[in-house]
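Notebook entry, structure prediction.
Reason for the run: the old model in the group folder had no record of what sequence produced it. Starting over properly, with the input documented here first.
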Amino acid sequence: MFETFYDNMEEAPRLSATLREQIRKATALLQTLQGSGQMIEGLVRGHFREMQVQYGEKFGAALTDLHRRLCVVEERVGVSAGAGSATAPQNGFGGRLPSASINGPSGDGKGMGLEKMLESLAGRMESLEKKMGGEK
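New structure, fully documented this time:
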């Protein structure tokens, strides 16, 4: 019985050292994992921003094309551009072509320009539809 007790007393410092080493390794691993998580989050955010910009560019190009096509149809039908919108004097966009802007991560409100463009296009389209409906 005393022999087992002395054996256990001999092993205690060695087990304590092993435990301290394992705690040190676990702490280092945890720090590495936390750093990796931050790095991965940064990569994902960067990739998302790139995709957001690409989408904004494609959306802007589609809006510009839609605006161009709408102007052609208005000209053929004999409706002055922007007739459906009291706030859009010349072509529904204040005399300029639409350009895409998307809300940034800060939510800076740049997307409001898109909302106004879409409202203007919808108003112009409604005006054309009424004119075409009246001719039938």
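Summary: The radius of gyration is 33 Å.
The old model has been moved to the deprecated folder.
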